[in-house]
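User: Hi! I'm a student and our assignment asks us to look at how structure tokens line up with a sequence. Could you show me two examples?

Assistant: Happy to help. In each example below, the sequence comes first and the structure tokens follow. Example one:
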Amino acid sequence: QVQVAESGGGLVQDGGSLRLSCAASGRTFSSYAMGWFRQAPGKERDFVAAISRTGYTTYYAESVKGRFTISRDNAKNTVHLKMNSLKPEDPAIYYCTATYARNNSYSTARSRAYEYWGQGTQVTVSS
């Protein structure tokens, strides 16, 4: 079992950057694939990015590809989401998620595949 907690959200100008962090508890963090999802008011929760348990495989939503980067540090039990060139459509609550990985390359965009979720961190973009 793993618990996750996000941090790093805040207010940033249009075109600016922000780095979200996710701290995970548990000794087996390296056994879990990690993901980031986001939910804007009145909308469904959408996939943003995912990373395999080794960090070698990453997967991005088309809307953020080339602007966002997901990374992890298994020694520190952390996952990061670096967001560049933030746009007016990016504001949302961003959630960190974890799912037990079946192999080293496994990652997924399916929200139902993720077992553990954080409380979320708010990202706001001002124009």
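Example two works the same way, sequence first and then tokens:
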Amino acid sequence: QSDLVESGGGLVQPGGSLRLSCKTSGFDLIYYGVGWFRQAPGQERQGVSCISNVARRTHYADSVRGRFTIMRDGNTDTFYLQMNNVQPEDTGIYYCAADRKMYDCTLEAAGWNEYWGLGTQVTVSS
């Protein structure tokens, strides 16, 4: 059985930091691109960041560029989203995804069809 499990979410004050983790199992992550998405209440799921597996090409949503960093180590089964200087608009459920994105990736959630996690809640509030 293949699985993705997010962790690291929680309540954080504006300006603070969080690191989300996505642990994978049941498949070899080195052959997959990975991404992070989020969904705020009443809104559609939106792409936050992604990185392809061969070219290591990265993309960030404009709203998080310069504050968030997607990280992966090709030798492990886990990848991360480092979130710095978080703001209330970053609140939402964060999902990780994996798909065969060798040379590039997309921030469109519909473009990720293979593996999704169940999400972790991030709340930014004072």
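Here is something you could point out in your write-up. The two ends are 40 Å apart (CA to CA).
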